[in-house]
Design a protein that fits this description.
The complex is a heterodimer of chains A (111) and B (117). Chain A has 111 residues and is mainly beta. Helix content of chain A is 0%, strand content 49%. Chain B is an all-beta fold and 117 residues long. Classes of the chains: A mainly beta (111), B mainly beta (117). At the A-B interface, β5, β9 and β10 of A face β5 and β10 of B.
């Protein structure tokens, strides 16, 4: 199975800061059809995960434009341009190019 | 508004069985692939099963293959997960999720399964 490695495990930030989370896969996530099925989710405390970004860089419905995704191949990044209080929680990357797998999560918390 | 509501979780002994349900509303259920995903007590997310829109195709990881069965009733807008030969490592919160863009776009609130003697 494809191993998804997220860094850092914990990301202390001040409100208004930019935050960046890295996700690396153990093999290329480029599908034979040319698409890259790398997605990002946010799980707020006490809630289920919610989709933020699909296929590397596409914001899901209702997701603010301060969230952006980038990357290719095996190396991907989620950026939050100006962190707000409602952004706190655990961020997971996931791939569905192969058998679906998830990263271990990055906890975004207040510094 | 898309809603996914899971039910059927509980405490079960090792080797026992349990059937989870997921009631879907707010979208055309029969048009979408559906997933079951679980979150372990350590907060790790694991894919458990996928079913095609019509129900003809199902997919499982090796960890549950032969023990879990995903199914759906498109007339009732319901998704199911029949779990048997349960092990302690199956203890988790189980979520159903709908699929768009090969991602899990909407998730339910989850139902908790504990496997313990």
């Amino acid at each position: 199975d494809v191993v998804m490695t997220q860094t850092p495990l914990s990301l202390p930030v001040s409100l208004g800061d930019q935050a960046s989370i890295s996700c690396r896969s153990s093999q290329s996530l480029v599908h034979s059809n040319g698409n890259t099925y790398l997605h990002w989710y946010l799980q707020k405390p006490g809630q289920s995960p919610k989709l933020l970004i699909y296929k590397v860089s596409n914001r899901f419905s209702g997701v603010p434009d301060r969230f952006s995704g980038s990357g290719s191949g095996t190396d991907f990044t989620l950026k939050i341009s100006r962190v707000e209080a409602e952004d706190l929680g655990v961020y997971f990357c996931s791939q569905s190019t192969h058998v679906p797998t998830f990263g271990g999560g990055t906890k975004l918390e207040i510094k | 508004e898309v809603q996914l509501v899971e039910s059927g979780g509980g405490l079960v002994k090792p080797g026992g069985s349990l059937k989870l349900s997921c009631a879907a509303s707010g979208f055309t259920f029969s048009d979408y692939y559906m997933y079951w995903v679980r979150q372990t007590p350590e907060k790790r997310l694991e894919w458990v099963a996928t079913i095609s829109d019509g129900g003809s195709y199902t997919y499982y990881p090796d960890s549950v293959k032969g023990r879990f069965t995903i199914s759906r009733d498109n007339a009732k807008n319901n998704l199911y997960l029949q779990m048997s030969s349960l092990k302690s490592e199956d203890t988790a919160m189980y979520y159903c999720a709908s699929s768009s863009y090969y991602a899990m776009d909407y998730w339910g609130q989850g139902t908790s399964v504990t496997v313990s003697s």
